[in-house]
Every structure is written in C-alpha cells, then in structure tokens.
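Sample 3 of the quickstart, ligand D-glutamic acid:
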Amino acid sequence: MSSELNPIGVFDSGYGGLTILKEFIDLMPEYDYFYLGDNARSPYGPRSFDAVYSYTLEAVNKLFEMGCHIIILACNTASAKALRTIQQNDLPKIDHNKRVLGVIRPSVEAIGKYTLTNNIGILGTRGTVISNSYPLEIAKLFPNMKVNQEACPMWVPLVENDEFNMPGADYFIEKNINSLLKKNNKIDSIILGCTHYPLLSSKIKKYLPPNIKLLSQGKIVAESLKDYLLRHPEIEIKCTKSSIYKFFTTDNPTIFKKQGRKFCDKITDVRHINL
Ligand code: DGL
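Result:
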C-alpha cells in the first residue's frame, strides 16, 4: 500500500497506545498519524518474547509500507520485548534511514526528575516485568537507583472489560499496590509502565500514600518525541503535516471505534488491516 502521506506511525497491541497517541495529537496536532492496533492478537502482556517480537516486526514493516518514516512502539510490552532487536538487527536491513522508538527510555529519563529517595516502583504487565527492561534501562542512566517491580496481570482485562470504574477493580489494585510497597517502603515515585493504566489512575491514587508520585507516560513520551524531532531534522522533514489521523486494526473496525473512544476521543476513520 503506497501513500502520499508520510505519517508518524504509532503501534500498540490494541487500544492502550491510544493514550499515548492522544498526547501526541494534543502536543503536535500538525503531523499526520497512522495508529495500528493488533487487536486480533492482543493482549501481548502474557505472550512469549518470540511472539511479541515477530508480531511487532510485522506491524513495523506494515507501517513502513504505508509511508511512515518513524514509528513509536506505544506499547510497553512491545518496547520491552521487541524494540532492541528491531533497532539493532532488523532496521539496518529494512532501511537504515527509518526509525523505531519506544516508550521505556523516555519514561526512565523522566523518573530521575521525580524521585527524591532514589527508590522507585514499576507497575506493568507480566511480560514487561519479566523482561527486566525497566531496571536494565534505569541502571544505565541512574546506577544508584533502587527499582522494584510489580506485575499486574488483571489490570488490562479490567480496563478492556469496562470494569475499571467498578468496585471489583479496587480489590486487584489495592492488592498489587500493597505488594509493591511491601517490597520497599522508600519508594516515592511509580511509573505506570503499561498503556492501559492511566485509565485506572484515580483508583491507583486511592491506595497510594499521598507522598508517592505517579508518572503516566503519555505526556512524557509526547514531549520526548517532540524533542527527538527537533534534534533530528532529517527525520522531521520527512513527516507530512496535514493533521490527518487514521486508525487501523487487525480486528473489527466497528468494535475498535466504540472501545477505542474510552482511550482517545480523536478516533474517526478506522479500517481493518491484515498483517
Ligand atoms: N499495551 C500493553 C502494554 O503497554 C498492554 C496491553 C497488552 O498486554 O497487550 O504493555
């Protein structure tokens, strides 16, 4: 599929990356964006490294074919399990002038500005936690920072099944928050390391002591992309700017439109796509 547009590609396993795209559009509405959700194969959280890597690579290739020069993996699980291999092994073969970025690095860069105790917590899917990507990335930038992680496998299903505002959600949120804080009572900042979790933030705050800061990724990743485009004019110049936002899903577009509005109110044109 060829296109006269050269949009910024935004990829996620399903709906969650819409929380990131929403912030891109708010901060930089002038660009064109293609959002691709692999809803037919989501969630990625419980899947193996190999599965997440090969699904993500298929999506990246598709977005390149559709005219993107830069793609953001707006999914923590894909960023954790696929980004590095794609950047190091695949991109040089596909086209070394194209770029694929993730959400973990910008979140880690930001955490240094938040913590005073140098003790931080990560909440994420099982896949993100097991990959150890956050602690590894943090160790490079902040070698003295103490990191504790907690996998919250029930949180994505709570959001996907519209239970996130219901009393049943409190049970799982309180349980995971308590379990994280029990690991380290000096934690003063927590990264919401999953795209779905911003929808749970009011309930999460209910179970956190008021001194603990919560970092949502959307705004941080958007600021980081803006800065990246400023520092890389050779990429920026290739991104077309007609404020066209298109949405593609590997599953049913009607359902995507309905469900996706919970994450982002900017969804208009949704089409089915095969990977
Ligand atoms: N988008 C995923 C993430 O940020 C959550 C949903 C999934 O497990 O696919 O980790």
